[in-house]
Amino acid sequence: MKFVDEAIIGVSAGNGGPGCVSFRREKYIPRGGPDGGDGGDGGSIYLYAKSGLTTLVDFRSKRRFKATSGEGGAGRERTGASGSDLEIAVPPGTLVYEADTGEFIGELTRTGGSLAVARGGRGGRGNVRFKSSTNRAPRQSTPGTAGEVRRLRLELKLLADAGLLGLPNAGKSSFLAAVSAARPKVADYPFTTLHPALGVVRLGQERSFVLADIPGLIEGAAEGHGLGTRFLRHIERTRLLLHLVDLAPPEGFSTDVIGVIAHELQAHGVNLAERERWLVFSKADLLTPEEAHGRAGEAVAEIGWEGRWFVISSVTRQGLEGLLNAVDDWLSRE
């Protein structure tokens, strides 16, 4: 199973062009002397954050990138043309590591930001550079230096204001599809979401926030069960967590499902357990309004929940407006 939140790519900057050995030979100029020019510099490689990209899926088909090399110098002290820099677009929120050593190189958090990942080689020196009072006719030059060659590991951590948590089939994708223009896969079986998805929730002019749908977590996710550690990394940058709880699962409702997610947040670390988290009881359309609110209220009382909680249905849109306005108000204050 391939996930699009990580990618390994190879980058090769351009080599510097060689310097030139040349002597000026023109009619009526008997003492022309050396005039070999320098080589051009090789092109460098940069990553830049491009708006609209949300995954690293493009790097599954193309994984090698090479900038052009500089051209050699020429006579009449002409410098060779420099190689063109290469810019590679990545989603905002991409972290860059050296693949072989694990060394952290940098991150691209804002749209338009760039990061140099491979420097081009320097052009060589032509023989005119070696002319001196004691060396009137130098025949030496230097080759250009090689450009950097690196293997990079790209890791995407989605940048979102709020993130959706929950067990598989808790209704997260349905909720994201109901409140935004995102169209995640929705089906009546677990693990329909295989990689995180982003959606922009618009409540009016100049009122919007970004919502991330995280693939379903299972018990032991923080230890890697179900590849949960990859999923949990995507909510490390969210400010608010919406924990969706299915009010009418086929196996029967139990408050134990709430504790499972809370335990995984605690085990994952990076202060996720202390982050603001609201309970959102979903699929209320499968029960009568009285049954849905009654079951949610009993669950809140049983676990001693002191935070905010909501009852919603993504199908009938019951409770969605109140929840979204509450999220927007909280985000605007924090």
> Any idea what the CATH architecture of the largest domain is?
3-Layer(aba) Sandwich
Mean pLDDT: 85
Largest sheet: 6 strands, mixed
Q: Which ranges are low-confidence, i.e. pLDDT below 50, for 5 or more consecutive residues?
A: 185-194, 218-229
Number of structurally distinct domains: 2
**Which of globular, elongated, flat, extended, rod-shaped describes the shape?**
rod-shaped
Number of helices: 5
Tell me the name of the CATH homologous superfamily of the largest domain: P-loop containing nucleotide triphosphate hydrolases
Query: How far apart, in Å, are the first and last alpha carbons?
Result: 38 Å
The amount of beta strand, in percent, is 15-25%
Q: Provide the structure class.
A: alpha/beta
Helix-strand sequence: EEEEEEEEEHEEHEHEHEH
Radius of gyration, whole Å? 29 Å
Number of strands: 14
Give short descriptive properties of this protein.
334 residues; alpha/beta; Spo0b-associated Gtp-binding Protein, Chain: A; Rossmann fold; six-stranded mixed β-sheet; 17% helix
Account of the 3D structure:
By secondary structure, the chain is α/β, with parallel strands linked by helices. It has helices at residues 172-179, 228-233, 256-268, 289-303, 320-333; strands at residues 6-12, 45-49, 64-66, 86-90, 94-98, 104-108, 114-118, 149-156, 162-165, 197-204, 207-213, 240-246, 276-282, 309-311. Strand 12 (240-246), helix 3 and strand 13 (276-282) form a beta-alpha-beta unit. The chain starts with 5 loop residues before the first strand and ends with a helix.
